[in-house]
Amino acid sequence: MDQIEKVKESGYQLPGEIIPDPGAKIVLGGGHDYASVTERIAGVVYLPMKNSPKKWLVGAFFAFCFVNLLMLAIYVLFTRGTGIWGINIPIGWGFAIINFVWWIGIGHAGTLISAILFLLKQDWRTSINRFSEAMTLFAVACAGMFPILHLGRPWLFYWLLPYPNSMWLWPQPRSPLEWDVFAVSTYGTVSLVFWYVGLLPDLASLRDTAPSLLQRRIYGVMSLGWRGSAIHWHRYQKAYLLLAGLSTPLVLSVHTIVSFDFAISVLPGWHTTIFPPYFVAGAVYSGFAMVLTLIIPLRAWYNMRDLITLRTIEAACKLMLGVGLIVAYGYASEAFFAWYSGDKYEQFMYWNRMTGPYGFTYWLLILCNILIPQLLWSQKVRHSLALVWGISIVINIGMWLERFEIVVTSLHRDFLPSSWGMYIPSKWDWATYAGTLGFFMLLIFLFVRFLPSISIFEVREQVHRDLHEKPVEEHA
Amino acid sequence: MSHAVSSKRYEGLHGAMAEFDTPEDLIEACEKAYSEGYRKMDAYAPMPVEGLAEAIGYKKNKVALCVLIGGCTGVCFGLGLLEWISMVAYPHNVGGRPLNSWPAFIPITFECMILFSALTALVSMLAMNGLPRPYHAVFNVPAFERASVDRFFLCIESQDPKFEPDSTVSFLQTLGGREVNFVPE
Lengths: 476, 185
Fold this sequence. Notes:
heterodimer, A: mainly alpha, 16 helices, B: alpha+beta
């Protein structure tokens, strides 16, 4: 009786001993065949609840508590209105837009990993692409919530869509806010399609190997009767390639359009041409940080060090360092052009950003996004999981501060000193933000529990490559 | 899947199926079957195998064409919608700016193009593959459960004019696979 039959008969158990990481040169640990990768990845889904790692249970419970906090915050918001937040005039955007931009940025690394690295044939993406696509979807779900909650009358959100209504009113198609509606909804839909297409063959594997009849039925329906025909695979690969090709310009366009929300206005600090590339780089930066924050604990909990190896983590670190430098260039360019423009409002805005009442956020941001990540130049740091994890958290915080700084410091002191103001987030601002973090984490927890969090068929292709190709020596 | 008249010859029999351990064995078997003159057959693998579809004589992949058509439809829909809103349905004079301010319509047009193309990629791939399809005869072979795990299958269908139960099975047995099964309908 082989492993797959055993799983079917008596369920799956996590390997008892810690499986070591094969190091920074190998994508997939040794000794795997097509069946063993199926067993290890699909097995996580079959774990009985009592055998789930305790950390999973505790984490999911805390995330669930925060989801309840989110519900409460939304209930209070719906009954009392946006006045419960710290927003005012002149700072009308506040946390809602900061968090919207932050969350959607996090999603972008998922698409980068699954689409752009696929087109570039980077084999190390195989172990994290499914997971990061899921992260994209959940981050977009959190992002999409904020502009709607910020509407004032959120129940009329459908007025944003062009549909024939009894008032014969149509949205303004020249406004970046309307572009945003299309960009974010397209991004969410295409990410879902890409994710589901990737899942399809793995759902068929689950249908064929699950220990319980109920699981086989559920995954069977979800797999749409996929049977792995060669002709189906041929069309499938073409469709997947095209989806990757379509997602690539899409992901660039989405954060470009998000940056237009700012750049198309005339406000000092927003009205700059560097915004689109600088926003896209920042998005990818924060997204990679979030991927690392999540996969480092995940691979330890589920004993998957041989499936998600140091090769992947190190490559992600290098990419993060690279886009981080683009972000640093963005900051430098913003500062330079504020000075070089000769425009006194621009100059004052930047001076105020550095030395005004919110100056500490600026210097914290420089520390988190530019200075600390430079540690990643050292291979020792990149090979220390604790340090990489810590740096990824620091970058997440730094990127949030960047959005805080862009939204708040530009709005709070613009042209007329008589209309200056201050923004202090209220407890409901924090509750909503923490609530979406919980919502995101809960979705991630459920995802790793109920769906294969690594693409099984792509790992099988990796097994096949490892069997037939000599490993390419490369520079560390 | 249409049931040609020839399939009536073997009522209740979908075909004969051989099982292999590696993708290389499967490709070799497919090439042999093709050169033997078999045309109505399908190969099954737990992952995409390069050259497998070509080995059983598959040539035309129309997914890309469908996606192109979908993308063009998206462009027409997006631009048409915005032009119609701003010039016909709700013409709105903002500071004397032109109603047909098409550069401002590009972002939404672009998003519509991507949306339509991506949905077409999904739908056309599934439709041409005949999915969703809960039942298929190949699932009747118990060993076929491993087609989504670690085994590779070649099924010569009874609709093939050259199909004869005995001769086809003995041909499949010469290919060096694990075992050969009939596939009941």
